[in-house]
Amino acid sequence: MSPNQVKPQKGSDIVREHLKREISSGHYPPGSRLPTVVSLADSFEVGRSTIREALSGLKAMGWIEIRHGGGTFVSKELPAEEPPEPELIDSAESLQEVLEVRRFVETGSVTLAASRRTEEDLARLEDILAHMERVLGDEEESERADVGFHRQIAAASHNKLLIQLMETLTGRLHESMKESRRLWFFAERSSAERLLEEHRTIYEAIRDGDGEAAAARMASHLRKADSVLRWNR
């Protein structure tokens, strides 16, 4: 791609970001019902598949809830916005610190999630995995879904403090994940499919209620990012 080329934004991305802004502004307050897929398609003058893809992305990010046969609703608790004073991770040392914190927080979260997850929690994780598979060729969207997966695990722990810790880490989580994914793909020539499979195995341990396996798989998942970072220092 030449420096002057700009990747065109997909219709579903435009719709998703527009709806996200309307939710953030309070046009669609928490708990409110969104218009039907048909109404949104008519409003945006796009196909229904475009609307469904946009809604799937919003659900994976925690902005909406889709109730089968009952409509689409804005989440009662919206995802945290970027921290008021975001500090970009611009050194190996600071990224290393984030990975260290993630290892403690996320292995604890996934252990609790394995014993406390509800059917709704599992359904949300399954939806995110399905979305991750659909956007395998879109690295930016894959990163968002990746973050959504890890945040949903924290939500499934049903521990308010752990959830708040993950929300606090959201801005740094995006940066650390972006950089660790880049380094991992480069150093190990790993594929997005392989990364998706790791997420699936973590989900399976949560689904099976095996906290020990879930923690071990999460630790292994994060340890790879840590080892690749050390290799590139």
Strands, helices and their partners?
Elements: H1 11-25, H2 37-44, H3 48-60, E1 64-67, E2 71-74, H4 92-116, H5 119-134, H6 139-157, H7 160-168, H8 170-188, H9 192-207, H10 211-231
Antiparallel strand pairs: 1-2
Organism: Paenibacillus aurantius
InterPro entries: GntR_C (IPR011711), TF_FadR/GntR_C (IPR008920), Tscrpt_reg_HTH_GntR (IPR000524), WH-like_DNA-bd_sf (IPR036388), WH_DNA-bd_sf (IPR036390)
Pfam families: FCD, GntR
Report on this model:
The chain has 233 residues and is mainly alpha-helical. The chain has 2 domains: 11-74, Winged helix-like DNA-binding domain superfamily/Winged helix DNA-binding domain (Arc Repressor Mutant, subunit A); 92-231, GntR ligand-binding domain-like (Four Helix Bundle (Hemerythrin (Met), subunit A)), CATH 1.20.120. Helix content is 69%, strand content 3%. The protein contains 10 helices and 2 strands, in the order H-H-H-E-E-H-H-H-H-H-H-H. It has helices at 11-25, 37-44, 48-60, 92-116, 119-134, 139-157, 160-168, 170-188, 192-207, 211-231, and strands spanning 64-67, 71-74. The chain has a two-stranded antiparallel sheet. Strand 1 (64-67) and strand 2 (71-74) form a beta hairpin. Helix 4 crosses helix 8 (170-188). The protein is globular and about 50 Å long. The protein starts with 10 loop residues before the first helix and ends with a helix. The model is unreliable at 1-8 and 82-92 (pLDDT under 50).
